[in-house]
Amino acid sequence: MKRQLTILIGFIASIFFSAKVWALPPCPGNYNERKWNNCVSTRLYEDGSKYIGEWKYGKPHGQGISIWRDGGKYVGEFNNNKR
């Protein structure tokens, strides 16, 4: 029983720590197309819409949330600024 509990705790800990290792860092400073690469941040656009999520080469790429001014939203995968 102790052995099973030890294995279970080790398994849960490995999942928790591996998720932290693979998480992307926050994007540096204000939006910058050249610097926002392989990072996570929020950008508020002039039209009132907002994107929260992963960035690659200054574009939404990866997991993210797009929220439009009218309240509609998309949650999911982005690929080079396209959903």
TrEMBL record:
It holds the Pfam family MORN. The keyword Repeat applies. InterPro entries: MORN. SUPFAM superfamilies: Histone H3 K4-specific methyltransferase SET7/9 N-terminal domain. Keywords: Repeat. This is MORN repeat-containing protein. It comes from marine metagenome.
